[in-house]
Recover the amino acids of this structure.
């Protein structure tokens, strides 16, 4: 397939490289990032998007996605797939899909889970929204870049699944960090705490796969001085998206709201910016109740 790839940062770079390594002809465009091996550099987003069977975007937010979409949709070939893998708000995803469909394109919102490691290893999970025809066209590419792709429903459904997942992740990470900080104060050894919780009803991905305590559990950003991984500011972005969606759909999400406020304080007023989102543990460790 001829593929255009726009946004080759921490996630997009390795995803594009995997498509090229699988034998696809990939033309990339990024404002700053270097092209990964096997990807040909295009001079603009529209040059990357022209005459392609599929165009994939992996961009920072909904505003940038909207700007790029309005540049490329008109030059894309009819029947081509426009696959957006960025994490953006549901409304932006739906607007882009509507504009793309009006030009005869097959639109899929397909945010991912699995982080930079999953992008490099080709083990991402894709959660997709769009028509069955659009999903079918994108699926072979998801199979190269990931290990699982779930067709969640119509346009926007992929983003809806993503922000619900990440709201759970933000809440469980805070809960796990709080519990470790409490365990410390109760004089409980961290390894013992992990051994119990990881096999008891308090287990979660945050505890078992991404343990926020250094030297405990499988290797995680905690073992690298909390270098991301998944940055606290990206978690804040996703929690904000969840609360924006909760507001527009009148959903009661008190823990999601509280998690967003905690990450906002951590990123904007404390030293959380640029750290992994699991660095909530040293934050709680330093604090008392007052
Ligand atoms: P990143 O900042 O590393 O990459 C974004 C890239 O987009 C950058 O290289 C930037 O130069 C480029 N870009 C920005 N504006 C552009 C434009 N107008 N035209 C072309 N290129 C442009 O971010 P990332 O970590 O790769 O994340 C990308 C998306 O994936 C985000 O929406 C993020 O929320 C989501 N995501 C990230 C992770 C993660 O662990 N990093 C996990 C899941 C989802």
């Amino acid at each position: 397939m001829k593929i255009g790839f726009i946004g080759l940062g921490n996630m997009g770079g390795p995803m594009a490289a995997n498509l090229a390594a699988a034998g696809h002809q990939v033309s990339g465009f990024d404002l700053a990032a270097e092209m990964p091996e096997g990807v040909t550099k295009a001079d603009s987003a529209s040059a990357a998007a022209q005459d392609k069977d599929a165009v994939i975007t992996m961009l920072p937010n909904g505003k940038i996605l909207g700007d790029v979409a309005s540049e490329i949709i008109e030059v894309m070939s009819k029947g081509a797939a426009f696959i957006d893998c960025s994490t953006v708000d549901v409304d932006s995803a739906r607007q882009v899909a509507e504009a793309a469909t009006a030009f005869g394109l097959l639109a899929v919102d397909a945010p991912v889970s699995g982080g930079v490691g999953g992008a490099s290893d080709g083990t991402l999970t894709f959660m997709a929204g769009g028509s069955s025809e659009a999903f079918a066209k994108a699926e072979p590419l998801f199979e190269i870049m990931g290990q699982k792709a779930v067709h969640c429903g119509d346009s926007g459904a992929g983003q809806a699944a993503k922000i619900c997942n990440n709201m759970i992740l933000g809440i469980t990470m805070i809960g796990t960090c709080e519990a470790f900080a409490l365990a410390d104060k109760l004089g409980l050894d961290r390894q013992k705490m992990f051994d119990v919780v990881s096999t008891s009803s308090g287990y979660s991905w945050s505890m078992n796969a991404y343990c926020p305590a250094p030297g405990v559990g499988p290797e995680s950003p905690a073992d690298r001085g909390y270098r991301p991984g998944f940055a606290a500011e990206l978690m804040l972005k996703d929690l904000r998206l969840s609360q924006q969606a909760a507001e527009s759909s009148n959903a009661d999400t008190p823990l999601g709201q509280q998690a967003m406020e905690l990450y906002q304080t951590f990123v904007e007023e404390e030293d959380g910016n640029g750290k992994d989102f699991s660095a909530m543990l040293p934050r709680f460790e330093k604090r008392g109740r007052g």
Notes: The longest helix spans residues 157-185.
